[in-house]
Amino acid sequence: MQSERRSFLTRLSALPFLGWLSASSGMAQVEPKKRLKIMMKSAWGSDDPTRASFAFIHGLALAEAGHEVQIFLTGEATYLMRKSTVDAMYPVGWPPLRETLDKLVIKRVPIFS
Fold first, then answer.
1. pLDDT at 52
2. Closest by alpha carbon to 49, among 10, 92, 83?
3. SS3 of residue 111 by DSSP
4. Looking at per-residue confidence, does 31 or 55 come out higher?
5. Smallest Cα–Cα separation from 41: which of 27, 51, 26, 31?
6. Taking the domains of the chain in order of start, what are their residue ranges?
């Protein structure tokens, strides 16, 4: 039944006045994804390394996906910009914060504190 319907729709879409049918039946070309502008905000500090790293980890993933990302740090999170603090941050289940920050620098993701 479904194959009969599909072949019928394919034949209809070949007609000039029903060309729009092919777009609505899933045969249209895929449009490029829109590039988003995203600001990540975090206030988590070194007392919880895993939560403190989330803004950086998620920001990196979004930047690698092609989005424009900025990271904004408030409160205790501002201490994460100290080299000694970053080097001591090891989130559970994620790479050390130093590695993530190095990748963010390569991607030129701005970090405001």
1. 95
2. 92
3. strand
4. 55
5. 51
6. 1-31, 37-112
